[in-house]
Amino acid sequence: MKRICKEDLERVARIYNSNKDASQAMGLHPRSFARLCREHGILTPYVRRRRAAEECRS
Asked: Which pTM value belongs to this model?
């Protein structure tokens, strides 16, 4: 299994609009991508979208 660095995860999570697209770009399963992001404290595209929606409602 190839190593995934935190900088690559941050970049992909920032560029793509969905976890599915971001995980495909990294060659990972979407759950693995989300788990790695959680472990490194990186907001996934899904989490960013949910937080933005919550802020709009507030």
From this structure: 0.86
Alpha-carbon distances of 40 from 9, 10, 32, 45, 54, rounded to whole Å: 9, 9, 12, 14, 23
For the chain, 58 residues long, the average pLDDT of each consecutive 10-residue run is: 87 96 96 96 95 91
Q: Domain of 20?
A: 6-57
d(CA 51, CA 19): 15
27 found inside a domain: yes
Number of domains in the chain: 1
